[in-house]
Amino acid sequence: MNAAVEFQSVSRHYGPVRAVDAVDLVIEEGSFFAMLGPSGSGKTTCLRLISGFEKPTAGIVRIFGEDMGEVPPNRRHVNTVFQDYALFPHMSVRDNVAYGLMVAGVGRQARHARAEEMLALVKLDGFGDRKPAQLSGGQRQRVALARALVNEPRVLLLDEPLGALDLKLREAMQDELKSLQQRLGITFVFVTHDQGEALSMADRVAVFNEGRVAQVGTPAEIYERPATRFVADFVGSSNVLPPDLTAAVGGPRAWASLRPEAIAIAPAGRLGGVVTGARYLGAGTRLSVRAGALPASNGHRTDGGPTDAPRYLEQGESEIAVLVPAGVAVPEIGAEVGLDWEAAALHVMEGEA
Amino acid sequence: MRSDARAPLGLTIGAILGLAFLHLPILLIFLYAFTTEDRSYQFPPPGLTTKWFAVAWNRADIWPPLYLSLRVAAISSAVALVLGTLCAAAMARAKFFGRDTVSLLVVLPIALPGIITGMSLRSAFAIGDIPFSTFTIVLGHATFCIVIVYNNAVARFRRLGASMLEASADLGANSFQTFWHVILPNLGSALLAGGMLAFALSFDEVIVTTFTAGQQSTLPIWMLNELVRPRQRPVTNVVAIVVFVATFLPILAAYYLTRGGEETAGGGK
Amino acid sequence: MSGAAHPARGAGDRLTAVFWSRPKLLTLLLLLPPLLWLGVVYIGSLVALLIQSFYSIDEFSGLVVPEFTLKTYGELLIPSNADVILRTVAMAAAVTLAAVVVAFPVAFFAARYAKGRWKAVFYLGIMLPLWSSYLVKVYAWKLILAKEGIITWAAEGIGAGNVLNAVLAIPVIGGNSLSTSYIGTFLVFLYVWLPYMILPMQAALERVPTSMLEASADLGAGGWRTFRSVILPLAAPGVIAGSIFTFSLTLGDYIIPQIVGSSRFFLGQAVYSLQGTAGNIPLAAAFAVVPIAIMLVYLTVARKMGAFDAI
After folding, report:
1. Which of A51, A55, A68, A74 to mutate to test the interface with B (most CBs of B within 10 A)?
2. Which domains does chain C have, with CATH numbers?
3. Could you report the per-residue pLDDT of C90-99, keeping only the tens digit for each?
4. Residue A346 and residue A258: Cα distance in Å, rounded?
């Protein structure tokens, strides 16, 4: 498969601030690619490096193999849906959508006809005569989408596309964006700080942290096999086990992650502890269990499997989050519980030395 | 003392007296334009007449200063529009070294008393042996009008935001297309307001003008001469009304043009 | 539809690419015309003013001698010229103090109590006199203060004619009529520059949080205590900002004392008549440097007191 966008050790420094630091990245053609990270992690700067609003201080950005070093934003075959939509307030919706065609010199009738097609594509037929101020947030976003697609970009960039919408609208738009991308077959690159959004929409996800790419992979890989402590914690708040604890529960002496939903409450388990908190989430209850609160009893097991009684840590303590699915009895706060999981659920993170 | 409570009586009276002090004198000019007494400023006027408007209309010495004032105000506000907008655009683009110096330089001609601007220009004309002309008047007027346009444009640029200009570039527009299709339409009313305020300021200006006009007479200079050596006092009153209206209307229009912005800006109050 | 980039179409696209790769270039190009204008016309003129002030005039030929000398500045110190400067500074100070007193109730009311429609009324009520024709405003006062004008009429109407005469009989500030006395000059200055004091004062007062006033009242402070110990200190930056305007504008004005007042010169009149009929541009320039120097001192002091946050 061809690379739609390629970063070759790209950096963007502002004086001492390393907004983007030596990033290597390949975005394959036709993929739905998410750049995920907390604010200030460099994901938005990377998006702006693709659109051309930022220039790398080092490295090369390629789009379909072409070096973009000397190509200004207006000549790139890339379009953007801006976070605040950036619709032109003085133009009608139709003129907004037709703007890219107008500056390209397409005649009035042809561009208006095309604008209507695009509006139909985003289900806004008949809204052409309105001004952006007369639209709801969700409608404005569709206009921004139609406007960005009218030039038939080969890569569509979306900057926090759903950030300004309320929850219900956001979920509907997720499905729509996904199906739109599949229909058009072009590359979508979107920036988000919402891991749920990234995992549910994207084919591939790059997780950013402090100007660097912490991990790139499919949503399942990112979620189930996080490469670093940061990824494990940021994507779905996984339990991060320090090397001692990993070793104590039968793994190698290395950092490991363990998903809260992979842990079951059992009378006997790989680890024991005391319930210190519970948060009801609807689909389940998230328990905080302080493991290692009691002295070790029972002899150590050698195979790493369940024993008859809970086993406690010999030194230190660790807060372990456990997701108890709805319908399963939730232990009370202060109760002593055992924690158990499939051996495969414990994931050793290669990215952590 | 709560702000939603009623104001103390003393304060209310003070505020009303203060506002009255600001407005009553102007109303008096309107009354005096209709007086039948033309040798003194007698109050109350012994009688009322509208004949002075006709007399003023037929006075040949009023028209050339009026034309000169209009010409100077038109050219000066046009120059100020271009220079003030360019300056505001540069300031809106990015932080750069010397930014504060630039904004100080723009404000200085209006921050220092007019006599300094006037005397400075007069000194420069004397050193450079530059003869007085419409051009020398415009030099002074355009200089202190730049800040008026600049202030209006800067505020609007701030409201316009960077992402709209980026969106235009993103959709394929080059810098000139972005200026024409996005910046200018959004800046339009602010520039119109700034231009009208500049026009009013220039039309009314007298202090700098007396230093840069030489023997030429703008309408304010004509009026000043009439004040020092009165001939037909009611005619001067009529001209005063004309000058007042010619500055008042653009200012009121400018207020309504930029009011939306003021309201959004003060929306948090 | 293939390829990652469009080719450049025409000069506009090519220039855009240049601006994009060198963003500072466009900023510089935008700044160049206004900076050239302000630099050459304005700063150039200020420099010319300074240069002229160091020239002198030949007493016999009346021609300007373009050689550096401090003689002209020395002339400022002779009693008749020093009097002009002192008189002007005294007037500027009096006008500034009076403006603070008159402006306060208007600014305080507009900032604290005016709501909705009244807010707009106050805004326009202050902005319109500020912007309306300077000369017309001065002229209006010539009508008001004339011996046969409305004030004399009103004073006699309420039987206070002798009070007015008593005021006019005060030595120095009195005179034949209000329009030929310092009192008259003072009133017109006060009127014309008043909005310049109200606006920054109002801005400063609007920034005083209501909660702070309530806190003061809760602590048992009466209206007057609250006013003196809370409101006044917080309004101070606005007062200083406004005083910069009233002081500087009074220093530099020559129209008002020429139209309303005694025949004794103010600084601006000295500058105007020296450069005009007297043809002594060097001394006129030296006189014009005086308000610049005074304002520089004033601004330095004001800056130290944090006045510039309120402008």
Report:
1. A74
2. 1-45 (no CATH), 80-310 (1.10.3720.10)
3. 999 999 999 9
4. 5
